[in-house]
């Protein structure tokens, strides 16, 4: 038996999310079916982050145990062949330690949230970014975002379905960067609460369009109360960017 | 009657191309139906470039005559409302001179061709870039591309269906730029032959993967013979970037 670490890219649009669910195809199930096609063995694929329906990944990480003797490169090629035509691809595959765990060993997660800020509706970017028509003040957003950086009780920014033991998290980075009409929000932490990135982005959007001041954001954080949340951003613009280990 | 200049963005995937055809929906028809919905008048929309099936645009330009009194901004908003859910959007709309012609007055056209150069299959970029698995030498491609810049007989790079009076064209720019695994090829000219950009990109890909030398490209150009073409790139990666006037 050999454990492998997989780095995975996917388009979240056709999926109910990362995790297996009864109501539709998941990324996990799609990967497990590809593993079965390659190995003829029912195998679980353990992911680093459970992305929601419609959320994408550039660098989701997962681990999987394979009994069939296969070099990492061959496994990657075989999985990618069987994943077609699903929009899921293994971008890297390497042998991992027998006790490597994609979720529990992860020491840093990065997400990117893409906004397209223009009046014109989206065309090919539809489903891959949040379309915000009102002009956003990116400087105000970035400045306010720094209020959220550090160790806080993020209850306000936490889904009622969140299974985390504690609402206390340390946010390492929250940068807001504009390139033309595209605004990218980069978030980094050891781990995030369920909906935390989307909830932070939703509130930063309110700051950007002038509905909220930076102080409103601070009060929402300090309330530590989900009902103080201004807005939860849609899944469309969210990408699981990368996971770090060790 | 007022003539307007429209700048248009679209995802080419669901369309048979820019031009009205009997075998499926075209971008032109989609726009003309939106104009009809706004004005109740059957109106022709004249485009700057007739993009093929599956080719996209960030800055296609068209002109249209509108009898109904409408400010440019209102026309843009109304067209975008009626274009939904088609992946076509008017990104700019301005009043034009009564004799302005999107095609005949155009003095410069820019196309961009996107390649994703990696073994891993595409996910959300599928249909929006050409997937090339073999590693491409971008420096060799860019150097060879300069052979094509200038005034030449581009018969080799011309579709048999091309309606241009002459195969002589002046290529002003052909730059090949890599950013990570994405390779962008920027082409600029007053006008292009049918399939010229895709044919140039196809041959540059052969240079990039080592199948062709720069001299092979030069010989293909000098042959002035369509059968000397190495490869026509697929429509997926091609974007009509912008059109210039005056």
From TrEMBL, chains A, B:
Domain Pseudouridine synthase I TruA alpha/beta: 8-105, 144-245
GO terms classed as biological process: tRNA pseudouridine synthesis
Keywords from the named record: Isomerase, tRNA processing
Positions of the catalytic residues: 52 (nucleophile)
EC numbers for this chain: 5.4.99.12
UniProt keyword Isomerase, yes or no: yes
Catalytic activity: uridine(38/39/40) in tRNA = pseudouridine(38/39/40) in tRNA
Residues bound to substrate: 111
UniProt GO molecular function: RNA binding; tRNA pseudouridine(38-40) synthase activity
Pfam families noted in UniProt: PseudoU_synth_1
Quaternary context: Homodimer.
Family: Belongs to the tRNA pseudouridine synthase TruA family.
Annotated function: Formation of pseudouridine at positions 38, 39 and 40 in the anticodon stem and loop of transfer RNAs.
Protein name: tRNA pseudouridine synthase A
Organism of this sequence: Sphingosinicella microcystinivorans
Lineage of origin: Bacteria, Pseudomonadati, Pseudomonadota, Alphaproteobacteria, Sphingomonadales
